[in-house]
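Researcher: I've got a protein sequence and the SMILES for zinc ion. Could you write out the 3D structure of the bound complex as structure tokens? I'd like something to compare against our soaking experiments later this week.
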Amino acid sequence: MQFKNVIGQRELIRKLTAMALSGRVPHAQLFLGHKGNQKLALAIAYGQFLNCKNRQIFQEVSADGLLADSCGTCTSCIKFQNLAHPDLHFFFPNNKTGSMKESDSSDYMDDWRKMITEYHAEFSLNQWYDAIGLGNSQGYINKRDVDNIIKILTYKNFEAPTKVIILWMVEKFYSDISTKLLKVLEEPSEGTVFLLIAENSNQIPATILSRTQIIRVPKINEVITRTDDDNFNHDNFVDWMRMCLKVDTAQMNEFSKKMKDLGRERLKLFLNQALDKIRWTVMINYHNLDHVFVSSEEQTFLTKFSPYIHSNNLVKFVAEVEKAIYHIERNANGHLVMFDLSIKLSGLLKKQ
Ligand SMILES: [Zn+2]
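Model: Sure. Here is the predicted complex with zinc ion in place.
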């Protein structure tokens, strides 16, 4: 996950990247804040940034509102994006299910990766418990998990300069294990960062709080000031998705020509905003968000559109749009790129 894929939180991201670029990265940080504010996405993007081999540093704030980001294409970034980097470790509340005698986070790693991908790293504890079939029992980050963390710390890093250990929902530490973890948090091991995530500081032992740098993650509450470009892009996105759903190739061709005539930068902006809308669609699909980050007009359309974007086409859909942006950046013919993309998206929208 690159920072540009995190929803909102631009100010905080600019602080995190500045801190990382200055080399002042605390070894244990606690991302603390309300549900639905992208804490997990931030932690993953941060880990990816710390290890990127080709960090992008911008002269001024980019169109995505950033001053720096990971490249998204180096070997480290690719492994992070697939959640398959050998130096990226996740721990989260779990419990035994079915015929298991004991459990730890590693037993649920496939479910975990699937949830992050499908839900854009934004899901509640209950959604997680449902996904792994916990029913009514509670999950904990348990003794086996802490033993595994200690084991991981004894290994040399496989390839990353910074080993990233993400602990999600640290409120759910099994109570008698926190002393063991405290030792780990107290004695930093070189080349390792702990990124802890929590919603409620009252439920975390003070001893853990005092050993972490607390990063308060605010609610996503972007002010919606829509420019003429935003309105133009929204109206055209609506038209575009309609013609893709109808598979109206004549209209797609006309549309592609019109979009080419916008010029490269404005076409890129259109496609980047299209990506945002797709991400919001996913958020709308899965959450009753209590914060507003789209205008009511956009929300109405995206809510109607949301059934067409789902786990079977989301990843490909985003990848195709990103590929088109890549080609346009490299001066490919906008008309052809947009027409080709329209056909591909049209096929993906038909997928069940
Ligand atoms: Zn990279």
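Model: The pocket of zinc ion is lined by residues 52-54, 70-71, 74, 76-77 (CB under 6 Å). The mean pLDDT is 88.
Researcher: Great, I'll pass this along to the crystallography team.
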